[in-house]
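Posting this for the archive.
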Amino acid sequence: MSQLRCLHVLLGMTIPLAPLSVAFACGPFLPSRILIENDAAFLELPYSTFAYEAKRVPTPYPPPFRAVAPAMTEGDTLGNAQVAQTEAIDLEQLTQALTAIQPDPAKRDKILADYGAVRRALAEHAQKVVAREEQLWSGMTDATRPPEIVLTAALAVPEGLPGEFADYLRGAIAYHGKQTAAARQAWQDLLNRPPEQRRQRSVWAAYMLGRSYLGDNPSEALRWFQQTRELAQQGFPDPLGLAAASLGWEAQLALKQGHYAPALELFRVQLEAGDPAAPISLLLATRHAAADADANARTACAQNPTARRLVTGYLVSASLLKGDAKVAAWLDSFKTVDAPVEDADRLAWAAYQAGNFDLAQGWLAKASAQAP
């Protein structure tokens, strides 16, 4: 039985029926499990997941870039796999660049070895930082919070590197060493080079400039994330998929400012781009919006088709808000817009779960007969 037909049946059961004069010995044929399960089990709607509901929501616009998911082996986390991916691509691109400008194999190998040692030290530090962040995500208290990871190795930029690689590495060393101003200056120096001298690292530098401003200057961070995508659109190489990743960081900025509708749009586009971090990011963002949005933010989400359908999908799936008064507040916000037919079955479902049968019946009347 489809979810829509099931909802019709359940709503019909809430209305007293007049006695029927004729009884039939055959049919309707219902599952035999209803003979052994209690009424509450029968009155439950079909189960859904947010992952399924989110994929049903059309992306507000096609993603202009595709994510580049790292190869993962058993035991890998996404963060560690991305660190390894960055290191491998960095060394591969440097090898290609040196082959073009350094004819002496011995000198080329020496530069690669020196660079590889620095890159390996940075990667090991980054993996420790990722591990700490994953521990923090597990909900540690202040008493059990792991100490901040500090880069202790004295690292230097090797001689003989192409200019853009030297600039980027100088910025990376400073960034991991908590010398943010020096890191920004190095990446700005890189981007000040003529375009033909910064083909390989322009997107990387703009992206990291955005990351560097996340904590203290959201407007500047936003500017650099948008610049990341502009550079990729101009044809500067983006082998790590940083343009797609920048969508998620921009969405986080919007989320922290309480701009839930644009945040959910960006996360949905990032999901469509294939970013492996997008599914959990979209779930957490929608959960945050559903729980924390005030009346104005709820109205903005109700008027935004993507945000409205994502929040509705969250409410009808395994939501943490079952029985919460916020569900009724969201339903009130949704009533203020003339939602299209394709939203009606989910809105009816959410209203039914909240016990608002009249509202559910009203939405159901608008739903397409072909709704799943």
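The chain has 17 helices and no strands. Residues 258 and 293 are 7 Å apart (CA to CA).
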